[in-house]
Amino acid sequence: MSHCCRRVLIIKTSSLGDVIHTLPAVTDAAAAMPGTVFDWVVEESLVEIPGWHPAVDRVIPVAVRRWRRHPLRCWRTGEWSRFRSLLKEGQWDLVIDAQALLKSALLTLGIGVPVYGLDRHSARESLAAHFYRHRVAVSKGQHAVERIRQLFAQALGYALPPGRGQFGIRSEILQGANAPVPEAPYIVFVHSTTAAKKHWPEGYWCTLARLAVDAGYRVCLPWALPEERARAERIARISSRICVLPKLNLQGVASVIAGAEQVVAVDTGLGHLAAALDVPCVSLYGPTSPVLVGAYGRSQAHLSLADCPASLPVPGVQPALFSPMTAPRVWQAMQRLRAAKDVDGTRQKARRLDEVG
């Protein structure tokens, strides 16, 4: 039996991938509890994402990252006190902290309604559990999307629906974006991430771009920072069929990704965005593992160093650990993913014909 909740506050502040991983839980809850409205506290740089879900009403920005860098300025300007007042005045029936970190748990103080979160054995930071009135046990050995879905189901009192979680992004969000969508067919290379150790070597990107262009594709390169734009421009020198996109907001990047034949991404948030948009994507994992936090959804391929035969470091390749993950190996993974999608499409078409018959 589900709780009678009219309005629920979600706290999931960052990062991009983690915020996207929370959307399927909202889809589950909205289906199980029709009429419930969800509000969401999220980092100011990510305020676009929660509003893409039709069940989310109010998006409340928070600036924990910026406030940590400039605590005195935050105090003097009154930003923190205004934010606290906003939460205390909210008319929520309960709060779910889906972040399970001390920084997110502290945001729940003084809200005055029941707060649900993971217990100390389940949370990423066990101290966070001390701030929750209701503590939920969820096994750690599962993908992050499934853990959050189970947290919501237990907090709100409904049976977890079977099958893969659905992100539920509104289609009109992509249609309303003012972004230059290239001529099809094209592939998007998500070549940038904030962690330098997760960068796939630039020379490998150049080789992969040549393979894609030779196969008849255009290649699109998004960027956010000046150094990312510089890298994109260097890759684009290979061919006039490689496009460096203008600087876009998340909605604009999403609209370009949504129209892509395929995406290749390093371990970063835009790779998770491709998965949420149900676009086939090969995600490249070097020092990280996709087991618990990899791109989630259909037509997602994870290529890790464990999938590549060990080799000596290639001179000039940085980071050197990516040496075995060569461009031809990534191209092969892309071809396998494309073939699997074609087979899946044929099966779905056959099922529809059987249903009609």
Helix/strand-derived category reads alpha/beta
Residue share in helix = 25-40%
Number of strands: 12
Characterize the largest beta sheet: strand count, sense, and whether it forms a barrel.
6 strands, parallel
Strand order of the largest sheet: 3-2-1-4-5-6
Number of helices: 12
Mean pLDDT: 92
* Approximate strand percentage: 15-25%
Low-confidence stretches: none
Shape: globular
Distance between the termini: 39 Å
Give helix and strand order, one letter per element, not per position: EHEEHHHEHEEHHEHEHEHEHEEH
Q: Radius of gyration from the CA trace? A: 22 Å
Summary?
The protein has 357 residues and is α/β, with parallel strands linked by helices. The chain is 38% helix and 16% strand.
Account of the 3D structure:
By secondary structure, this protein is of the alpha/beta class. It contains twelve helices and twelve strands. It has helices at 16-32, 64-69, 71-77, 79-88, 102-107, 144-156, 171-175, 202-214, 226-236, 250-258, 269-276, 327-356; strands spanning 7-11, 37-43, 56-62, 94-97, 115-118, 134-136, 186-190, 218-221, 242-244, 262-266, 281-285, 300-304. Strands 3-2-1-4-5-6 form a six-stranded parallel β-sheet. Helix 1 runs parallel beside helix 6 and helix 8 (202-214) crosses helix 9 (226-236). The two termini are 39 Å apart. The mean pLDDT is 92.
